[in-house]
Amino acid sequence: MKSLLNKAFTLLWVPAVLAGALAYADEAAIRQILQKRLPMMNVESVTRSPFAGLYEVVLDGEIVYTDEKGEYFFGGTIFDIRTLPPRNVTQERTNRLAADAFTKARDLAIKRVRGNGARTLFTFEDPNCSYCKALRQELAKIDDVTIYTFLTPLLSDDSVRKSIGVWCAKDREQAWEQVLTSGTLPEGAANCPNPLDQIAAITRRFQIKATPAIYLGDGRHIGGMRSARDIEKALASVKH
To answer: Whole-prediction pTM value?
Structure first.
């Protein structure tokens, strides 16, 4: 968040014509104002919050807040203290953004279905990551889940080569299992169009900087290497 705010303040310019543009603006007008004031950043959405005069802004993938004139914005966490325990409204929205993004990108992932596949996990993994290899053994103990694995070669050029080889294999699931267990690709692994650049854009947006990274179907990040028991507990907490 600090880097986002620094970037915004560096780019901020406020023409006099905009400073008093609207006393009370709707979401579209505020978005237009902010986009003009922050031309090098992407104002993805502006939504009225439950709090009077406050609007949620998704700015380059991160949630910030602005006033109804679009003159100020701030980063931080909003809690709804009408409930016990208090609800972290900002984190809930961040999770929803992640869940929506990962779900829309499912075709970029290796899909593995266990049992009835009713529950969902999203993982970001590097083929040379030792913790990813250990995670494979834990995921094998979990039933009734669909696992979407996004190839995330962060460690080396060899990770990139193996990721492409897995994606281009006739049986991606089998190739992924083989590369994690033996470190080798199936014979005849080829080069083909692959989604690595698109996945990299997702990891940048959600600041995924290490593998493995595990997300629940509701977008909650539950960490890196976790035991099957911990993952099962997290899966059981997802509300349907």
So the answer is: 0.84
